[in-house]
TrEMBL record:
NCBIfam families: PRK10515.1. This is DUF3811 domain-containing protein. It holds the Pfam family DUF3811. It comes from the Bacteria.
Length: 90
């Protein structure tokens, strides 16, 4: 199941600040303003990393939920002999 691509509006404040920091670092490393392609490349890499991280967290949550799911007690299952009268129906 493919999840839709994450947008900047859907990011938390901290994630948006991190993206801005990454863009600033790339701009400083190049020593000039970034082109649209370079900016989009940095954004795409960061969004891919965030989506992978969120998917991992979702997998862990699903695994935990499955582990904590109600388990049927094998010893307490329905027993015909315990629930029927030894004399049968009257």
């Amino acid at each position: 199941m493919a999840i839709p691509r994450l947008t900047q509006k859907e990011m938390t404040e901290a994630e948006q600040r991190e993206l801005k920091t990454l863009l600033d670092r790339a701009r400083i490393a190049h020593g000039r303003l970034l082109t649209n392609a370079e900016t989009n490349h940095v954004k795409k890499e960061y969004i891919d990393k965030l989506m992978a991280q969120r998917e991992d967290e979702a997998k862990k949550a699903r695994k935990l939920k499955k582990a904590q799911a109600y388990k049927v007690d094998k010893e307490a299952t329905f027993s015909w002999s315990a629930n029927t009268s030894p004399r049968g129906r009257r």
